[in-house]
Amino acid sequence: MARKGKEVLNALDAAKTQMYHFTAIVIAGMGFFTDAYDLFSISLVTKLLGRIYYHVDGSKKPGTLPPNVAAAVNGVAFCGTLAGQLFFGWLGDKLGRKKVYGITLMVMVLCSLGSGLSFGHSSNGAMATLCFFRFWLGFGIGGDYPLSATIMSEYANKKTRGAFIAAVFAMQGFGILAGGIVSLIVSTAFDHAFDAPTYEVDPVGSTVPQADYVWRIVLMFGAIPALLTYYWRMKMPETARYTALVARNTKQAAADMSKVLQVDLIAEEDPQSNPSSSNPNSFGLFSKEFARRHGLHLVGTTTTWFLLDIAYYSSNLFQKDIYSAIGWIPAAETMNAIHEVYTVSRAQTLIALCGTVPGYWFTVALIDYLHTANGLYLHDRLHVRARDTV
């Protein structure tokens, strides 16, 4: 890299913690907040969907989603997430983080609204429409998820990079908590406004027509934080590491970082900064050189992350079933449809408030002292112990 380019990146690495760091945490973290809300809010309303769309006359228990439908509704967003990560990750390297950031946000806004407006002539038709929008919602989340972490890592200094990235991830906890709180507020309001008997007393009357609005409002609310963040994301300059290393425009990188660091960085044009010039030190993702330098780190990190996410996402998606199995919430037939949403939301809110959120910020506080590998190991062990206990 050119000497002037190194000067810009060294200034970033050595920069003291400033207000722009915290601004970047909030802006990038709002992506994770919205991601978690959108991904996990569906688990709060799936029991309600079963009551509304799959009620069976004469059954002693409320309607539930058929296994194949339940699997699709809960899991289709993750199929979109996988595709979105691959596509937007590639696009982010081609066009820049800032441009792709805005695209992913708008996809999330539109598909959150579309999820709440799902329709169909039959129960399966309505669920198919919901799955369609949930897939593309996941597609947008898949792009937002890695880009948020990448932007924070490229803005952070060396000293507190681990804590800053962990803080962005910690916004997931607030997203899960917000999902529970929004669902609590909506279900409480509708439960008081539209009184209904329990399923045991009146199977049909226990699900009032207005219950159909509850799940739609909860899902559509995910568009609000994404929309509020869009303006501030578009005001953020492109990260200097992308501008200098990928776009090879050290002069622009210096100008952008001079604004946020509030110092004078002057980078003159250099022949190596020309995007068309070849860089002998660059190598592709699937090259032998990349495998030699980073292959082991990549495999180790992705494998650990994959195994962790199996437990993390499955437990969050199916918490409602765990609550029922351990008797933490009453039997479904002893409640009306909207009150069941309230009890599930209350349980999730308590778990998030007492466990998820403190756990994230415990990591933020200690990660730069434990180091990343030790922190990840401790997190994995605690997660495994918790699953074993359940």
TrEMBL record:
UniProt GO cellular component terms: membrane
Sorted UniProt keywords: Membrane, Transmembrane, Transmembrane helix
Places the protein is found: Membrane
InterPro entries for this protein: MFS_dom, MFS_sugar_transport-like, MFS_trans_sf
GO MF, one annotated term: transmembrane transporter activity
Membrane topology reported for the UniProt record: Multi-pass membrane protein
Residues passing through the membrane, by range: 20-49, 69-88, 100-119, 163-190, 213-232
Transmembrane helix is among the record's keywords: yes
Domain Major facilitator superfamily (MFS) profile, residue spans: 24-390
Protein name: (rape) hypothetical protein
